Structures are given as C-alpha cells and as structure tokens.
Amino acid sequence: MAYYALVGTAGIRRSRTPRLGRPVGISPSVTAVGGVVLLLPDGEAVSGRGPSARAHAAALSLGRRLARAGHTEGLVAHVVHYRGRGWNGADAQPAADASWAVTEAVRRYGDVPICLVGHGMGARAALRAAEDPAVDAVLALAPWLPDQDVAAEPEPVRHLLGRRVLIVHGTNDARTDPELSYRLAERAKKSNRDVCRFEVHSDGHALRQYRDEVHALAADFVLGSLFARPYARPVADALAAPPPLGLRMPLAAGFGSAPGR
Fold first, then answer.
1. What span, in angstroms and rounded, lies between the C-alpha atoms of 67 and 243?
2. Dihedral Cα 151, 153, 155, 157, nearest 10 deg
3. How far apart are CA 129 and CA 38, in angstroms?
4. Minimal CA–CA distance to 124: which of 82, 181, 79?
5. C-alpha span between 152 and 53 (Å, rounded)
6. What's phi and psi for 98, nearest 5 deg?
7. pTM above 0.85, yes or no
8. Distance (Å, whole) CA 81 – CA 148
9. How many CB atoms lie within 10 A of CB 172?
10. What is the pLDDT of residue 239?
11. Where does residue 28 rank: exposed (0-12), middle (13-18), buried (19+ CB within 10 A)?
12. What are phi and psi of 152, to 5 degrees?
C-alpha cells in the first residue's frame, strides 16, 4: 500500500515499493542459479526524489561484468531499485531496501551464496544489510559514511564477522572521505580477519579513471568469495596482511589484464 512521508525539506512524496531489476546473467545454458549478486546504487544524503537513473546504469554495467565472469557457476546479478535515492538520516531507507532485497533473493533462489555490492550510499547500505545471515560477502565501493561524532553511535561492524569484506576507495574522492572507510575497515578487521581494503590512487568517487581495474578486482573478489575460486595474489595478500598493510593495498594499473585473471 502506498503512503505519504515527509522527508527533510524535500516535501511530501509518495513512497515506492523496492524491487529487484531484471536478472543479469541468466541464459538458456544456465540450468541453475549458483550465486547471487545484489547491486546497490549510489544515492544522496538527503532527498525525496526517486532512484537515480545514472546510478542505476553504473551498477548495471558492473553487474553485467560480474555475471559474465561468473557465468559457469550460474551467477546472476540484480540491481536493487530503491524506494528513493535519499538516506535521510535515521530513516536509512536504502539499507532497509537492501535487507528486503536479500530476503527476496532467498525467496527466489533458495540457499545460494549472496554478495552485496554497493557504491557510495549503496555501499553503506550493503554494509548495514550484511547482518542478514544469508549474506556471504560485501563489496563496498567508495562508501559514503558519516563523520565520526563522539555523541553518535559509530557505524556498526560486529555483524560483519563471518563475511568476506572488500572496501575500495579512490584517494582523490571529494564526495566521500577515504579516511572514514579506512577507519571503518580498521575497526572491522579487529574482529574479522576476512576484511581488506584497496586504495585507487588519484581516482575520484566514481572510480572512472581505473574502471577496468576496479571491475576486475570486483570480479576476482566476488567469484573467490562465493565460489572459492583462487583470489588474485594482491587480494589474497590484502586479506592476510595485518593493518595498515591490508587496508591500504594499492590497486595496480593493469590489474586483471594478465592471462587467466
């Protein structure tokens, strides 16, 4: 049932129902789904507008890359359509929509491994929704995180125990502070050794400058986490290394271009 809600200064809007986009990766040769990637697009801190078409397109591009890479294992990807693009403080609607998407994926596909892949605000939603026991891995690209405030509760990380977690952040990101994602990774690593973080030097929030390398890194992590494919050496090293080495791993130009990677 639709209802009305007041969001900040954006005025009154009609809420939407979250949904999964069309599956990416399904073909006649795939007889069974072996794993699911749920892609969570970027958004805005405060907004009453609907989901961003541009952010959806960026997530869809990565979803296609991941589905192609995991075709033999029956990997399918869905881009999650939020009810709106705003986080809107304690409302945190995208995180709730991400949690709904996990439940929906389990309903559709049963007990298969699930990876949440988010960018910006979607990365924060992915990290939050990883509390669902059905989630096996989280890939957070340029996560939008709140500034640390002694008066506020820090972003939760304990629920990430038992999940593989990869954070990727451009060092020149002017929209989301890379140091905040480092601090979150540092806290998460204290209780979960399966956390690593890569820095994309000189790249910005959209991670366009090294898009091919970022997509290759994403595919390596997702397939290694969901289907036990061997990780590329840099990913394995980052997971094994203690802080700060494993949390400030540089993403090398040309990552993924070697044969077989």
1. 32
2. 140
3. 11
4. 181
5. 32
6. -65, -40
7. yes
8. 29
9. 13
10. 98
11. exposed
12. -115, 155
What's the token pair of residue 244? Answer: 């700060």
Query: For residue 125, is pLDDT > 60?
Result: yes
Tokens coding 50:
């609907």
**Residue bearing tokens 């979803």:** 63
Q: Which pair of tokens denotes residue 222?
A: 């997702």
- Give alpha helix (H) positions in the chain: 53-69, 93-109, 121-129, 178-189, 211-227, 233-240
pLDDT at 7: 39
DSSP assignments along 65-123, one per residue: HHHHHTGGGTEEEEEEE-S-SB-TGGG-HHHHHHHHHHHHHHHHH-S--EEEEEETHHH
Whether the CB-CB separation of 7 and 91 falls below 8 Å is answered with yes
Residues 6+ apart with CB under 8 A from 90: none
